[in-house]
What we know:
The protein is an alpha/beta fold. It is built from 15 helices and 13 strands.
Amino acid sequence: MRHSVWTYPWDMHDLGPDAALAAITDAGANCVSLATSYHAGRFLQPGNPKRRSYFPEDGTVYYSVDPGRWADAEIAPKQAAIVEAEGDMLAHAVRAREAGGPAVSCWTVCLHNTRLGMAHPGHALRDAFGDPAFYGLCPSSEAARDYVAGMVAEFTTASRPDRVELESPDFLGFDHGYHHEKDGLGLLPEDMFLMGLCFCDHCLTRASAAGVDGAAARKVVADHLQAAFARALPEAQFPDFPAKGLAAFDGLPALAAYLDWRSEPVTSLIARIRDAAHPDTQVLLIDAKDSWQGGVDRAKAAAACDGLLYCAYFTPADKVRPEIEAARAALQPGATLIAGYQLFHPEVADADDLVARTGAAGPLVDGLNFYNLGLVPRARLDWMHRAIAELEGP
């Protein structure tokens, strides 16, 4: 089984690259899932001895970029300044692996990128009113697809990681997260979902080519939201949502057809990334319970790559097994399934709670991933060590 720890390159640098990898292996893991492309944020880092509160550079990559490769690209990656200033941690991890160290996985944020969304607004997500969601590039955009596939091709060819973990190759929802968000309406789950649907020109063109009337679907959504905005108080129009999933909208044929089509750009992008990656590198989709809201058809998406890394971050122990069983059932025979857990408190109460959650995954998974080296106290890696030891057995 392959057990890994999600890790930021700045944490590897501040702990010392070899010391960071040793901490990971001492905790029972045999792989490091290193952020290779990442977004902005503010991180409290009790596990980092130097940067206790850190704001990473927005929308950059953490490997050595070849500028010549991107000379004609409309959208190109930006190498984070710390790669030159503090060293290429991906290159170090690969060298350590060749010397007998842990396997290397490239944790890759695909389309969640505010820097690129603002620099290329024509390729950002657009709601039913035409307003941009700058924090996400659209998976229907050919330039965005070229960017993600080219990025994965570049670092897998140069570094030959054992695995790539794809985060956000789909449609980011309206509630994904941005600075100082304001909602005085009191958006219901149905409103939040519909606000997050993309109707950019790339989506409308791609849907039309598939025989789907995206403009009609956009009008349905805009009319629903306009009515919601006019009410003094929120009033559910689709009371079976989200429990019923996309079927809650079956009474609106134009919207239902669009929602059914919406998984196509996501699935085909994942397949393109798999084709672009080095053949020796495994490609997994980072998945979760409600990923269908982002346009993920789990079975089709998993079949387009090598399997799933299913995140059960907020799932209590007594509900883990049904979720893992559903994820496994969506996979083709021989596909990989990794279960992902966070080490955050109070979401995870203590070591016993984590052990119960990981144990529930049992023989259904091919390994565990834990979040995150720098974001939790070093002492909490002991929880992970115990979880791995009990899953592996004597």
